[in-house]
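Schema walkthrough. Field components (list of strings):
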Amino acid sequence: VPSEKKVQFYSDGLRLAGVLFLPEDPGPHPGVVLCHGFTGIKEFILPEYACRFAAAGYAALTFDYRGFGESEGPRWRLIPWEQVTDIRQSSQVRALEVTVHSVQKMIKQEFFGHLERTKQRYKRIVIDSMTALKMFSMQGQDSRILIQSFLRFLSELEATSLIVSEHLDRRTLETEFFLSRGEIRLHKWLDGSMIRRAVSIEKFRGSPFDDRMRPVSITSKGMIVQLEAVAQSQAGSPGVQPRESLLEARIIDEVSNLIEAIMRGIDEAHRLQIPVRDIEVSLSRAMLHFQRRHYQKALKVALACDSELKQRIGTVPPPPPVTVPPRPPEVMR
Amino acid sequence: VISGKIRTGVPGLDKMLHGGLVPGRPYILSGPPGAGKTILAMQFLREGLEGGERSLFVALEEPPNELKINMRSFRWNLDDLDVLDANSDIRRFEPTPILEISTEEEPAKMRSIGERIRKTPDFESKEVTVHSLQQLLKNLLVKKHYERVVIDSMTALRYFCMREFEEAVTTQSFMRYLAESKVTSLLTLELPEEGEVPPEAFLARGEIRLHKLRDESGIKRFISVEKYKGSSHDEFVYPFDITNAGLTVHTTGKPAGGT
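Field assembly_structure (string):
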């Protein structure tokens, strides 16, 4: 079954809409452009032909001339010479076709071509970037499998490869981050009017590593890591993205004061031999939230600990029992 | 407390689990990339091997040759560990036949694993699907009577060995299969840095979670038992280190936090 995908290209600044019919194999393929007749559109008659061409191994393109169908351009006019220009511009479509298989094929050809010419293997490969490859070349449901296969392909070349990737969302789990054997993370933040940069190692299978965030500067000699220094973000607060608003700074103060108060309270409870183990457990959770910078959650848990603790030690009277309506006087003696 | 618990190979963790794991059940070991899941899983298997238990590691994320090299620095004797290479080959885009991993495939002993990566053959690609892997495990469990199994990782199994439409149902049936098979299994699970916990965590009998916190002064690691059906357990979050001896959990002194 040939695949169909919507494409677009430009002719005299107008965006023209097309559909590209591709054979199953990765190509490259010879191409055919199918043009509709006067006052026709690309959906009319042409798809059937395009499918037949694709089944026979051709990349077949159908499109709407300017002013027709889904294409831009003034309606109600038909100038054949302009349509010739549109047909000529359709050759742009080919340039859009970079797929993960074609990239893989290119790397393979280059790798083994180089080996044959020079008797040497490439030892280092950089993929710049995985994010672009994912966005432009492997949309669709099998993208995880394609990334796994691509990384397996790089592993089997037995070169050391560096894959540039942007971690766009901390809440999603990107395949390359857990399949890679290590992760070097670059940090960048604004400190007043200065851009600060730092580097850290997040993961390195099979080896110990320095886990601190080290400041880096970009100079005419390239990137320089200051091994003796530790990156200093604002106010010594934990700083992967060290930009805290005033509000955040206040909540941090509040939570840390609260946690200290609770710890004092727990010591007090121990002295009085009041059981508070469950509060200690909740407090350890609050601290974990705090270190994760989930301040709201930390505050909520810490507040609950605080009130429970106060109740048990007895500095605050227990809340009144569930109100029981007074008995009617006749029942009383 | 159920008697006859088995040790995890990490003394501090056994203490947190009030003696260890109830044998014959599946457990989740979750954490973000770089938290130390694979190392802990290896300690679990090594503990088994030392007690003469038959143990299997199913590798879905890392080629076995690299696993072997990475574990060398710990100087653990893993020679008798069975390793099943369940990494799929490079996918082919030409219309050549794709072969599912054979359900008769045999795991390799760690001692016999070579230095170099297995190469995808020129004319056929081996693909691992959850269905063939499950059948293969069934055969292996009957033949070899494993007592400890590690699946590293469930995330890779879900991402690379299932079609999206079948994920929920198939994951559930795979976990159910493991529960019925009476083997003690540890399934690793990748967690994102923030946000939702994947659904596998709800299906297991217990979950051990590794936490990784980073600030400029370094990475701090913590461990907690999130859930443990059929047993009491410690609810604190404790710090741990990774050294030449593997994971060391600091259960003495103050739990997580302590400024």
